[in-house]
Write a structure and sequence with these properties.
Chain lengths: 247, 307
């Protein structure tokens, strides 16, 4: 599997979109630091803003596009044939691609939170750095898990580039809308939002006072179990479809 | 039986309503070059795909190295090098980077395997040119390099000379012949180019509309190919009538309005010539010819040719 991972990393060399997103994640500190210093924002407010929009809206879309690139590249270039003849089992190929998506998710997540921390250091309002890093790391992994349905879409529609991306955008935007409207739709991203809200909100005291928010929030453990269950179903389904696809 | 590297038994592939391959029995012997000859869409690639497990088999079976491939893929396929249709590589990487990926995934033990394979096909090692910038010939060469990199016992090459220039074709032909003759590799090669199969193959399988019409060694086929007398005349219809009248039972074939072939070599040609001329048929050419592979192909497929 290590060989597969190494090969997957080599394959994404010079992939413009992935390079661009990695670069964007690395350059994130600059504008955020400026925003924090100039607006004299509370660090926790900025963190909440980054978590809500960055993690729950932008990150799933980026991961969906990357999944689409990773799966389509094999089909479009005929490399799936070459790999099948070696033979590379499809489940291993799928696994390696999913791990790449998780690694990138962690990189983007930690880079985004790291960026806000640099801004926070300038204003001096930052606290609990290890806890916040741990939350960002966990959230990145969970967001990637909640994005597994998009990977299934990328596998099913691997001959198409736009369709899986469209699915990802619709999935991420709809899940985000369900979350901000406090709807109880069992979409993985919405479920994750419901259980993570107490950890990412800048005003936990205010949240406790609003009854409908209280009722909407879910306990962490069952929620994570549901996510893992949904993710497993998506992976099994993806592996089955990927194995059955002829080249 | 033991010297068969590939053996298919009633291999059949159905796509929807269409039967692409119909109960094909291919026998590829160890150390030989087997040319699968057929027009575009005859079923050559589908047979190769089924042999390599790239497409499901509707019915029948494939044996490689004496073993049924089902459940043995992990053991059997590393012994094969293949190109199917166009060579598949990552366009954002260089040729060397591409080969390094496949060498790693294959677990190729020789550290210089990539360099050697590139040298064999005449491509530069560690070149900065991306695969997307390669010409069709270079892509084909890289495909061959990838197929031979791990020193496989069996090569399955689907139209490997597509896009190569004449010198490139000759080089690859020589290389494949050396692989087979000097290193005992078995090669299954498909092509719709008759001359190439004629020059390269030891054995031949002629496939047409999913049916394997003929399977024999090239030597046997050459023996089988008949001599004939080619007549170029003013009217083959009249000439045929005269031929029937004067030499009833003679075996002949009309090519077009002006060309006909007489396969009966015992016939008195001066008498035929005289008969044509006295009946006002212009005779522009009469010559003794050997039937070519193309002629044979036309004859057994009942078609007009291959290309």
């Amino acid at each position: 599997m290590l060989k597969m991972l190494e090969a997957e990393f080599k394959k994404i060399k010079r992939q413009k979109f992935i390079l661009l997103t990695v670069l964007a994640a690395c350059l994130f500190p600059i504008p955020l630091t400026i925003v924090i210093v100039h607006s004299k924002l509370n660090y926790d407010t900025l963190l909440m803003f980054v978590m809500e929009f960055g993690f729950f809206l932008v990150l799933p879309i980026v991961l969906g596009i990357i999944a689409s690139i990773l799966f389509r590249m094999e089909n479009e270039n005929g490399t799936l044939k070459t790999l099948s003849v070696i033979p590379v089992p499809r489940w291993k190929l799928l696994g390696a691609k999913v791990i790449i998506i998780y690694i990138l998710a962690i990189f983007y997540g930690v880079a985004a939170i790291g960026a806000t921390m640099i801004g926070g250091l300038f204003t001096g309002t930052i606290s609990d750095i290890p806890l916040k890093l741990a939350i960002s790391l966990s959230m990145s992994v969970l967001i990637a898990t909640a994005s597994l349905p998009m990977i299934a879409a990328a596998v099913v529609f691997q001959k198409n580039f736009i369709l899986p991306i469209l699915c990802s955008v619709i999935y991420a935007v709809a899940s985000f809308a369900f979350s901000v409207m406090l709807l109880k739709v069992p979409a993985p991203l919405t479920l994750l939002f419901r259980c993570s809200l107490p950890f990412i909100t800048a005003n936990p005291e205010r949240m406790e006072m609003v009854e409908n928010v209280q009722n909407w929030v879910l306990p962490v453990f069952p929620c994570i179990l549901s996510l893992i269950g949904m993710g497993t179903v998506c992976m099994v389904l993806s592996a089955y479809i990927y194995r059955k696809q002829e080249v | 039986m033991n010297d068969l590297v590939i053996r298919t038994e009633n291999l059949t592939k159905v796509y929807g309503e269409q039967e692409a391959v119909k109960s094909v029995n291919v026998h590829v012997k160890k150390g030989r070059i087997y040319g699968l000859l057929g027009r575009n869409g005859a079923g050559k690639t589908t047979i190769m795909k089924m042999v390599l497990g790239l497409t499901s088999i509707t019915s029948g079976e494939v044996q490689l190295f004496g073993k049924n491939i089902r459940g043995q893929e992990k053991r059997i396929y590393p012994r094969i090098g293949a190109i199917i249709e166009t060579p598949g590589f990552y366009p954002n990487l260089t040729g060397t980077e591409n080969l390094e990926i496949f060498a790693k995934l294959r677990g190729t033990s020789r550290p210089d395997a990539v360099k050697n394979a590139l040298e064999v096909v005449g491509l530069p090692y560690k070149d900065k040119k991306l695969f997307s910038k390669y010409s069709l010939g270079m892509k084909q060469r890289l495909g061959i390099a990838n197929a031979i990199m791990h020193d496989p016992e069996l090569l399955i090459l689907d139209e490997p000379i597509n896009g190569l220039d004449p010198i490139g074709i000759a080089e690859i032909r020589k290389f494949l012949q050396d692989l087979s003759k000097e290193r005992g590799k078995t090669i299954l090669i498909s092509s719709h180019i008759l001359s190439e199969i004629d020059l390269l193959a030891d054995d031949i399988g002629i496939i047409h509309e999913g049916n394997l019409l003929e399977e024999s060694s090239m030597d046997e086929l050459r023996k089988k190919n008949q001599k004939y007398v080619l007549f170029r005349v003013s009217s083959t219809a009249t000439a045929a009538r005269i031929l029937e009248q004067k030499c009833g039972g003679v075996k002949y074939r009309i090519e077009d309005d002006n060309v006909m072939r007489i396969y009966d070599m015992d016939i008195d040609l001066s008498m035929v010539n005289q008969a044509f001329i006295t009946n006002n048929i212009g005779v522009y050419e009469s010559s003794v010819c050997d039937e070519s592979l193309e002629d044979y192909f036309k004859e057994i497929t009942g078609g007009v040719g291959i290309a």
